[in-house]
């Protein structure tokens, strides 16, 4: 595996370290870009697809998953700046056909995941439906997990709706709009994965992979995202492309695209947006990560067989971007952050491990069934007082509790405690009524019972 490196004396060069970490995590191919003070270091390693010999270059595009949302949000903010949209106008003014919630949802709450919408349906359920039908079915009152504007719950549905609003005011498909409003002005060659209205990509796109490091096995996987949800995750980008977006949030930014005052608005934490387990706060299309006195912003994108990351320090002038074509890219990112910190980049590690705190006795009243859209979380009590969590019936992981109703989960592979989530109490009744995992909020729908044999029933 050979790494190609473009160097700059003003920035740390991690070519050899990067290549070694990519090999350690079994990632077939990856890119790292670091930018500061008008200079960028780029490093590319490996192959587009495992054992094909086709090298990753600086121009190779990777499916960036949910980082697409930051591009969608930027397009929406350009339209706000141009006077085509208002952040606090009910979106029914732009899409009058919305039968429900059109007079309650605003662009601000959609961009900040405070619209109260559930995460999203199974891709197979919506693989062939239109965006208007999607909006009618899933942007409905019965699918709300919170009253609009009252709290944070990460939602792909919300960004489908943002894309729909963009289409309504521009008369273009979302793909055409984001390409003309954001990508081309930033010098990015558009590449989409199954987005309606998009031109076929003319650049090479890396295949995603499912990697088992214990077996030394890597298998290509194919994107499962429904075309209808393109605005939430259909872009393919290089690490250099992500740096281009990051520069919108440095200094004077890119005023021909978005004035600095408008870009700054995207970085301001929105009231009530508490994305426990994902970040420290959330702005308009950007997560906020606090590291001491520094507030980085950015987004993560974990798609089908890819793992990509963008971090921006608006005050210090840093932009860091990683693209990788394997599920193990998440572990690679953690190690890359350690190397960057050692090299003098003021960036912290991702919040994936349990904080060093003293465990508490599991609180009463947690066991039950919690629902976010089509996803079910079952919290069950085994003999004794230990509680376990299963997501959509996929095994039970033991929960360890700490203060403020927060908990960690035991990773079945490593046995380590990793960040899990938290429970929430109803302010009026003080009863536990919701569960937040990975930024997604699930409302309580039922209860579980313990059996003497140690089995679980809902």
UniProtKB/TrEMBL annotation:
Coiled coil: none
Gene3D superfamilies: DD-peptidase/beta-lactamase superfamily (3.40.710.10)
Keyword Cytoplasm tagged: no
Source species, domain of life: Bacteria
Annotated Beta-lactamase-related domain residues: 18-330
A Gene Ontology molecular function term of the record: hydrolase activity
Keywords from the UniProt entry: Hydrolase
Hydrolase in keyword set: yes
Protein name from the UniProt record: Serine hydrolase
UniProt source species: Planosporangium flavigriseum
Organism taxonomic ancestry: Bacteria, Bacillati, Actinomycetota, Actinomycetes, Micromonosporales
């Amino acid at each position: 595996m050979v790494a190609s490196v473009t160097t700059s004396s003003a920035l740390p060069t991690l070519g050899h370290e990067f290549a070694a970490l990519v090999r350690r995590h079994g990632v077939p191919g990856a890119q790292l870009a670091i930018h500061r003070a008008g200079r960028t270091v780029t490093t590319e390693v490996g192959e587009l697809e495992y054992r094909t010999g086709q090298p990753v270059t600086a121009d190779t595009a990777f499916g960036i998953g949910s980082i697409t949302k930051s591009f969608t949000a930027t397009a929406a903010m350009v339209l706000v700046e141009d006077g085509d949209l208002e952040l606090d106008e009910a979106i029914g003014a732009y899409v009058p056909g919305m039968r429900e919630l059109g007079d309650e949802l605003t662009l601000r709450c959609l961009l900040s995941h405070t619209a109260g919408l559930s995460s999203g349906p199974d891709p197979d359920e919506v693989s062939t439906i239109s965006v208007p039908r999607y909006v009618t079915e899933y942007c409905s009152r019965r699918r709300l997990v919170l009253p609009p504007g009252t709290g944070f719950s990460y939602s792909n549905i919300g960004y489908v709706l943002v894309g729909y609003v963009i289409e309504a005011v521009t008369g273009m498909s979302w793909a055409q709009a984001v390409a003309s409003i954001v990508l081309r002005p930033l010098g990015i060659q558009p590449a989409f994965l199954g987005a309606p209205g998009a031109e076929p990509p003319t650049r090479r796109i890396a295949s995603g992979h499912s990697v088992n490091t214990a077996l030394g096995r890597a298998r290509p996987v194919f994107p499962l995202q429904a075309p209808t949800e393109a605005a939430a995750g259909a872009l393919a980008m290089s690490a250099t492309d992500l740096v281009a977006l990051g520069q919108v949030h440095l200094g004077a930014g890119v005023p021909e695209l978005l004035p600095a005052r408008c870009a700054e608005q995207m970085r301001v934490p929105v009231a009530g947006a508490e994305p426990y387990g994902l970040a420290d706060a959330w702005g308009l299309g950007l997560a906020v990560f606090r590291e001491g006195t520094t507030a980085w912003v950015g987004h993560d994108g974990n798609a089908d067989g890819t793992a990509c990351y963008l971090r921006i320090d608006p005050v210090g002038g840093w932009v860091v971007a990683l693209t990788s074509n394997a599920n193990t890219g998440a572990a690679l990112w953690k190690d890359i952050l350690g190397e960057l910190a050692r090299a003098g980049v003021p960036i912290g590690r991702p919040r994936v491990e349990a904080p060093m705190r003293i465990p508490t006795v599991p609180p009463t009243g947690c066991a039950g069934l919690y629902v976010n859209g089509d996803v079910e979380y079952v919290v069950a009590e085994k003999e004794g007082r230990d509680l376990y969590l299963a997501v959509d019936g996929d095994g039970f992981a033991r929960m360890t509790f700490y203060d403020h109703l927060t908990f960690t989960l035991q990773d079945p592979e490593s046995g380590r405690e990793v960040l899990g989530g938290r429970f929430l109490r109803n302010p009026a009744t003080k009863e536990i009524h919701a569960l937040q995992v990975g930024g997604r909020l699930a409302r309580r729908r039922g209860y579980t019972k313990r059996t003497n044999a140690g089995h679980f029933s809902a």
